[in-house]
């Protein structure tokens, strides 16, 4: 029962029970590191603390975790759960598909995001060859990072690839983070190409010299189970990390995957241009944006990616990573100065702990709470239909989708320059540019030359300036000839000619119109986003997040306002100028009198009226609620079926191993108790939900569509062997006969009968 600190002649040993206490306590409270725990043991034992005790306890703890990992590997090997089994079966509600299920728009919903709290400091020491500046200046004499060398010893140990993605997989997409790809996003038509920059490396350059691992990139299913994680090494949130995650998702789940990402709108471009582009397109992989971050994107992006408007998404907010990081950030204090191996070890242990004890415990509550939330929204549908009818809308589904398309076309049109008479205005501008160029006459230009100074700098500068001026003039003439050829102009326009004056007026009007369009676009987006700020159910954090985005947009509005006023003064006759106070106080489109001067006035359009917009948003929420009910009915039945199948499979495996390897059978029993710990809790909640008015699902188990998901070498279980006749759900019945552990009197006979009826191959 003791674990020594070294394999031969150890001086210290720690009991396994003490290790279990620390492991469980540390995972429940990650703030508790090894040192304070050892100090508390010293206080209880009445001995002084020494750093040697901490080092030896850490060595014993590594052995303890290694023993646990090896035991778990042997159990999973015996059950045939190796390779990609964990990732393919990460969540029983997402992956345990049954026969006869209705097809969903998204086979599985996941969320992924990066977090820079779990950083690791790179240990360095000053290079002996570095020379300090002995000067008396007041400049900072801190030696640069290049003058130091790493002191961290290499540790060949690894945590494995069951959860962590190997660095080789991630680095395959390193070349996709080049500047050319980031530049290509500007021409992709992506409305958020220039807005979100967290994939840019410039923001994290300063931390590279101090940190080795700068954070983690995590992927969770919608219920909170960890699918994959990768280390961000000496970089920010580069596109190679989500690309590696996407590859893992495609390998595990195949088609119809919906992945939420705070910059999913922008990430769709590098994904499409990557080697995974065709595969992701063929597999119908969808890049989505979470609800929390989506309301800070511009309105044009929201129309395409906001969760409220995405068909088949239900009420999922795709912000599970933010909730996970709120808890995992407590790990930061105990891994900041840890070695690379111990950092990954602690992160992996914490994620596995959450997947085994916290997320499964809350799974039933998650499903039941979402079901009740969806029923609450659907209960408001009749009242909403009455309000919609009073507004004269007979077919809300078609009308609201048409409004979204019309709004999208309107905002897209504002961001594009008009094409009419473009060639005439371009020709006018080229004539102006030609007039600004100086013609260089070789006979009239004299350069002073001193024979005694053949390399005179004055002569050389003059020659260069003359050559550059001549080249610029020739280019301007060539552009003018090109425009004349396109327009069919026989004689060059003069400044007093009528076409020249008309083109000048068109250029002034276009400059004014473009400034007006940009100002209108920013103000309209601000108005629509303020409506989200004023909603009663918008939380404080979301309000703050939107406020920060609006603050940034306010700066853009101020700059656009200055450009508009300059163009308005240059117009003939001058147009009305605006002040900052006038623009910033606009709350509704009806207050924006400036829109009368734009190409199209949208104040009278139905989709732009505040009441109609509120009705439209509520309608889409109810649509998503119906989709959520459809998904929850499937997921609840999957959980019930998995509870039955998992217990029966593990009991049979335990009995099969009992005759040949009692130790393995004992550990399979512990594994079964861990896997079925919360079964009665889930069934109790589902039974109560089944009595709720409006419940349309079933809590009767079904038949798994792929029995190999329970483990390689496992045969299918006949559904009649585990049939459940539930006319009126009774919590006491569901939590006893078919699901509870058979440990009472007569339990052995029932298990033998169960084993006789199961068709299980020898392990």
UniProtKB/TrEMBL annotation:
Q: Where is the composition biased (Polar residues)?
A: 143-152
In its UniProt entry, the species of origin is given as Coprinellus micaceus (Glistening ink-cap mushroom)
Q: Where is this region: Disordered?
A: 131-158, 719-763
What's the protein called, per UniProt? Answer: CxC1-like cysteine cluster associated with KDZ transposases domain-containing protein
Q: Which PANTHER family match?
A: CXC1-LIKE CYSTEINE CLUSTER ASSOCIATED WITH KDZ TRANSPOSASES DOMAIN-CONTAINING PROTEIN (PTHR33096:SF1), CXC2 DOMAIN-CONTAINING PROTEIN (PTHR33096)
According to the UniProt entry, which residue ranges have a biased composition of type Acidic residues?
Answer: 740-754
């Amino acid at each position: 029962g003791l674990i020594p600190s070294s394999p031969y002649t150890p001086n210290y040993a720690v009991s396994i029970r003490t290790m279990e206490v620390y492991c469980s306590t540390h995972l429940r409270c990650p703030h508790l590191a090894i040192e304070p725990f050892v100090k508390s043991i010293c206080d209880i034992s009445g001995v002084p603390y020494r750093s040697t005790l901490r080092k030896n306890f850490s060595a014993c703890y590594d052995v303890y975790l290694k023993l646990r990992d090896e035991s778990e590997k042997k159990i999973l090997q015996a059950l045939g759960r190796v390779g990609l089994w964990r990732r393919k079966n990460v969540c029983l509600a997402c992956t345990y598909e049954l026969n006869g299920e209705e097809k969903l728009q998204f086979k599985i919903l996941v969320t992924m995001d990066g977090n820079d709290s779990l950083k690791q400091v790179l240990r360095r020491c000053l290079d002996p060859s570095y020379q300090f500046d002995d000067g008396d200046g007041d400049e900072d004499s801190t030696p640069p990072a290049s003058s130091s060398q790493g002191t961290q010893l290499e540790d060949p140990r690894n945590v494995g690839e069951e959860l962590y993605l190997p660095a080789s997989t991630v680095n395959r997409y390193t070349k996709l983070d080049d500047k050319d790809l980031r530049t290509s996003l500007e021409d992709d038509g992506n409305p958020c190409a220039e807005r979100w920059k967290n994939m840019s490396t410039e923001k994290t350059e300063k931390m590279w010299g101090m940190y080795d691992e700068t954070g983690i990139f995590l992927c969770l299913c919608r219920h909170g189970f960890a699918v994959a994680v990768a280390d961000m090494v000496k970089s920010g949130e580069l596109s190679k990390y989500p690309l590696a995650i996407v590859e893992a998702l495609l390998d595990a789940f195949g088609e119809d995957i919906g992945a939420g990402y705070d910059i999913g709108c922008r990430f769709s471009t590098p994904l499409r241009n990557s080697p995974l582009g065709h595969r992701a397109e063929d597999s119908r992989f969808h890049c989505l944006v979470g609800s929390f971050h989506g309301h800070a994107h511009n309105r044009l992006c929201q129309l395409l990616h906001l969760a409220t408007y995405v068909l088949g998404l239900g009420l999922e907010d795709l912000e599970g990573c933010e909730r996970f990081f709120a808890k995992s950030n407590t790990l930061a204090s105990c891994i900041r100065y840890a070695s690379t191996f111990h950092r990954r070890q602690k992160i992996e242990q914490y994620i596995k702990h959450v997947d085994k004890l916290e997320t499964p415990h809350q799974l039933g509550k998650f499903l039941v709470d979402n079901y009740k939330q969806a029923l609450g929204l659907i209960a408001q549908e009749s009242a909403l239909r009455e309000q919609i009818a009073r507004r004269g809308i007979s077919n809300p589904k078609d009308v609201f989708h048409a409004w979204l398309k019309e709004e999208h076309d309107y905002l897209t049109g504002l961001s594009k320059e008009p094409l009419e008479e473009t060639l005439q205005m371009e020709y006018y501008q080229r004539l102006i540019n030609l007039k600004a160029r100086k013609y260089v006459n070789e006979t009239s230009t004299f350069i002073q030359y001193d024979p005694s100074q053949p390399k005179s700098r004055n002569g050389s500068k003059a020659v260069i300036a003359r050559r550059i001026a001549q080249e610029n003039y020739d280019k301007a003439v060539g552009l003018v000839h090109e425009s004349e050829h396109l327009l069919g102009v026989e004689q060059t326009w003069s400044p007093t000619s009528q076409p020249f004056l008309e083109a000048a007026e068109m250029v002034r009007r276009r400059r004014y119109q473009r400034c007006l369009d940009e100002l209108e676009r920013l103000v309209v987006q601000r108005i629509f986003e303020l409506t989200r700020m004023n909603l009663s159910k918008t939380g404080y954090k979301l309000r703050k997040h939107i406020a920060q985005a609006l603050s940034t947009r306010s700066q853009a509005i101020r700059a656009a306002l200055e450009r508009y006023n300059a163009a308005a003064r240059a117009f003939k006759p001058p147009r009305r100028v605006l002040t900052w106070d006038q623009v910033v106080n606009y709350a509704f489109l009806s207050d924006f009198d400036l829109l009368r001067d734009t190409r199209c006035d949208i104040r009278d359009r139905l989709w732009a009226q505040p009441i109609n917009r509120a009705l439209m948003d509520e309608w889409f929420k109810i649509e998503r609620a119906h989709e959520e009910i459809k998904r929850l009915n499937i997921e609840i039945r999957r959980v019930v079926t998995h509870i039955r199948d998992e217990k029966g499979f593990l009991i049979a495996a335990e009995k099969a191993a009992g005759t040949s390897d009692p130790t393995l059978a004992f550990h399979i029993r512990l594994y079964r108790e861990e896997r079925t710990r919360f079964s009665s809790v889930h069934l109790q909640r589902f039974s109560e939900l089944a009595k709720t008015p409006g419940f349309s699902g079933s809590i009767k188990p079904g038949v798994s569509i792929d029995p190999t998901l329970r483990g390689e070498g496992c045969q299918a279980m006949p559904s009649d062997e585990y049939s459940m006749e539930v006319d009126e759900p009774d919590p006491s019945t569901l939590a006893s006969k078919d699901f509870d552990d058979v440990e009472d009197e007569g339990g052995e006979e029932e298990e033998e009968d169960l084993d006789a009826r199961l068709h299980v191959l020898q392990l």
